[in-house]
Amino acid sequence: MDTEDDPLLQDAWLEEEDEDVAFSSRKRCEGALLCGRSPCRVRPLRVTLPVSGFWNIVGWVFTNPYCAGFILFLGCAIPAVLAVVMFLHYPALDIDISYNAFEIRNHESSQRFDALALALKSQFGSWGRNRRDLADFTSETLQRLIFEQLQQLHLNASHLGVSTRVKRSTPQGRMSSPKPHGHLNPGNRTSRTARGAPRWDYSSTYISANTQTHAHWRIELIFLARGDSENNIFTTERLVTIHEVERKIMDHPRFREFCWKPHEVLKDLPLGSYSYCSPPSSLMTYFFPTERGGKIYYDGMGQDLADIQGSLELAMTHPEFYWYVDEGLSAENMKSSLLRSEILFGAPLPNYYSVEDRWEEQRRKFQSFVITYVAMLAKQSTSKVQVLYGGTDLFDYEVRRTFNNDMLLAFISSSCIAVLVYILTSCSVFLSFFGIASIGLSCLVALFLYHVVFGIQYLGILNGVAAFVIVGIGVDDVFVFINTYRQATHLKDLRLRMIHTIQTAGKATFFTSLTTAAAYAANIFSQIPAVHDFGLFMSLIVSCCWVAVLFTMPAALGIWTLYVSPLESSCQTSCNQKCTKKSALHLAEDLFIASEATSRAGRETLPYLDDDIPLLSVEEEPVSLEMGDVPLVSVMPENLQLPAEKSNRGHLITRLQELLEQWVLWSAVKRRWVIVGLFLLVLLLSIFFASRLHPASRAPVLFRPDTNIQVLLDLKYNLSAEGISCITCSGLFQEKPHSLQNNIRTSLEKKKRGSGSPWGSKGSINLQGTVYISKSRSKGRPAVYRFSLNASVPAPWQMVSPGDGEVPSFQVYRVPFGNFTRKLTACVSTVGLLKQTSPRKWMMTTLSCDTKRGWKFDFSFYVAAKEQQRTRKLYFAQSHKPPYHGRVCAAPPGCLLSSSPDGPTKGILYVPSEKAPKAKLSATSGFNPCMNTGCGKPAVRPLVDTGAMVFVVFGIRGVNRTRHPDNHVIGDMGSVIYDDSFDLFKEIGNLCRLCKAIASNTELVKPGGAQCLPSGYSISSFLQMLHPECKNIPEPNLLPGQLSHGAVGVKDGKVQWISMAFESTTYKGKSSFQTYADYLKWETFLQQQLQLFPEGSALRHGFQTCEHWKQIFMEIIGVQSALYGLVLSLVICVAAVAVFTTHILLLLPVLLSILGVVCLVVTIMYWSGWEMGAVEAISLSILVGSSVDYCVHLVEGYLLAGENLPLHQAEDPGACRQWRTVEAVRHVGVAIVSSAVTTVIATVPLFFCIIAPFAKFGKIVALNTAVSILYTLTVSTALLSIMGPGTFTRSRTSCLKAVVGVLLAGLLGLCICLVLLKSGFKIPLPNGTAL
Fold it and tell me: Alpha carbon 230 to chain centroid distance?
């Protein structure tokens, strides 16, 4: 039988009248066979089909080697030129890692907060989200205005003298960092108040000789207790670990070049060895004081730990103490799960005159220095203490490094896909290179359009997903072109073959790329700039990728066929000659020679190109199948089966083709009704479980949960506000040097009475002790060893003699000292022993004694975990045989009591050498500052902004952004619209009444959280003279030196606006959907209060705002926008597929498959414990576009198969449907499976990303791809074999009808919306509003 002229792959897009002439006689016989009517044989079609002028030119261009080479050159040159123009003549693209990119500037919550921020900026010259440092001159001006008002009211003139006697204090030190605000870090500060700062101006512009005296940078450390159920950070082992970390930071070789050197440290003599650098702002200043000249200095530079309880009691007398600990600590519960610390660095640096002198250069020097701490700090965590490190510069460095490392995984993904493409293109280096190159170069074009044409100046962090996903999407188009070209070997004319490839593959990939691009483009309508730009960027990349593949791959295929394919065949033939046997080589060569069939006209040669498989070939005799089954008409002739099986090249694709044929025969023919039934059952269950997916119940996770940056982000909700710094809260600034004599005398007196401190009258005692070892041995029983701190040896124990690994004694430390911080416990037991031989047994462990097994505590000591100077290495182990005793020895094999790996009861210890000098306890070891007279009462816990700060603003109407219609964060924020009718003194009574009402609402405001007035000058004492309601205004409970959040704006001698601040009870760690209820409570309560004011009062225009409200609406509206994007992409998909398939019975299987895929993916998300957050919603919005690809390709194959059916109606349409379905899988099966595999491989590296949205996005895309290809090969094939049109063929008339139907459906939907609007129904919009 001749099969080289397969009629199914003839030009499918010819004019209908030509098609009727060419195929009418041929289809009658063929259609009868296909539908089971007659056994006539198929003969090849020998008629040369006419081609229109346009397509003839296209075919000639891509098959002419010079034109094809020129197209490939342009395909490489144009993206390169555009990239050069973009990088050289336009501003560099910045990677935006900030929260700002997710802010919805057009939302009411953002407009309100931005209006307040702009008002602060215009009033004070700088602004920020954590703006707290309101200038003192504002309070002075407000006081002056109050006095003028009092004069007008003829109040007591004696108060006028007060204003003249009030001293103007120097403004408290504050600084404004030039670092751009809004980065994803808890150390982010645009403008920071230095609580308790020394009295000099940090922002001075004059030349100063005080080098490094301005605290301008910092490292923020957080120490978390872990390893036990109590998790109390105030234990000896943990405090020693924290002290060691802080000392390592100060021991950095370049620390003195950047450290902070305030004038106050000059009084601390021990700091002279550190060039009077300020020690860390930490509680270690209380726990590790130093002694010099009989005085105690609280600088944290001591070697020995003071009394923990007494140090805490002293520190708690200052309200600044609470900045360092968690919210659970109190005088009754002196335990904290964490401890904070700040390492401060000063400016100007050496060789600079002032802070402003070459500021960028100073900042770059500091950044290059501070990142050297990252490697060291990352290794400091122990089993008891987790060390977290942050600060603006360190955190930004960590985030950028994380982003860059995740992007490196994209190269791994691309490399794996390149190897897979090489295999699936039958090891063609030429086709693999241009396939991958077309995808990569298209990204440059998309980047040019994104940056230059659309004018977007930054790449959001979400855009990093494109590096992973686009390769998998682009390879889909590449495979379709290669697969279509190789299956068109029956077309002898290379030009006709190329035209067929461009028409068939071009149309199929156009619609799949259209739906995918539309799915991403649906996110363009999102109100969140980052999501908007992500949708735009991805839709541009998908579109540019399709255009690049459309031009590059046909040109590459043309050159490959003419020149490269023979070379590749000869190279592989020569390689096989060296690796295979001659018998196998003979059969393989027959298949390799067939790759040159395009240049031969003889019908006797094999018509397939390499591993090409004909789309249509039939058996010699038809086979009658039961239950309505049709013959599988894709079996190769017998004379070709053996070479195909024995060929090395294309063997994988051949096997995959055969597997897909068997699979679709089972799903589409034999078990189609079973599959449809299972699909409907799974669909119903999926809809049920998908509806149970609830909104997110916690704040979004941005990084992997166990990373330093994510733990810091989680902890920031439990700590004070980011705008609060505590550079002078440590004992160095809070405590004066104490005399040691009174404490020593008291201690000696107590010691005489049998109690007292562990240190003696001479100021120091021996830190070290000795552990003595003895043993007891009896016949037939192993020796049992005894550990003791006493040198005496009672009977029946005997001293151990040196030798054979025995250790008679060894030195230890009684308390943690230096690096000797590993605690070992000696446990004793009598279980399982004979009292007359060895009444007791001992063992050593790094944990507590196991009382359940009879072990009791005897004593403990400290050793080193690593080798130190003048140390001795010993081994300890516990026997795994009765009586399960322990032993210490000098070296194996004497200590091999157990073959198990090292653990709590086995390992290595380093003890001080016998020749090492004895360490002495200093005078500060165990020092209790509260021993004599006590330290006083603990301070009341102040407000440290752990709750969301809500502002109630009057005098501001909003923000004017008419000149900036875009929704992007970068750029000018607009201007403030002030309320000219606002008069502070006219409404002062109502304002005071409102302040009291809000402060008394304990459901909304924390006790002491009302900050109705700005700081300074005791303004509240004067306000009560203006109006009786202003008496007893709530006073905030702030830290010493901490400024109020309340603010006023003054211009031209008039108060323009006022904002009252309230620390709310809203916990910032809750999810956005839960916090939204708090927002509604605030909004409802404030509106109720405003309605009590007289009609026409300017106070009725007041509003409440909070930065946290902006953040919650990011996620809420982000989810809503993504769900709208899902619906929009579904509508676009339905319209595109309807136009593409042109038949309702072809559209229905696609829609059912998409619905099943989306519901099943959401169900798996629900089973996995996921919640519906912003990342999940964005991922869902692209599921429709990525799910439809494989179904559309399958329908395309179904339509191509229909081109060969007879025009008259077949007698058995069911058999024809099944045949067309099988042929559709044969045509596109390998291509869609290959593209699915590459997409999954492209997204697998995303699983290992540290950035959580990347990882979750990759999992969703991989899951969607796997489910989509499974449903395509099962559900879609079964539905097509059941309901697909048997004899339908696509025509221009059907396409026109489909377009009209889509337009009518859209018009009908618009009419329904108009009717609903007229009836009063509100249609919600993605931005949170409603029509």
Answer: 31
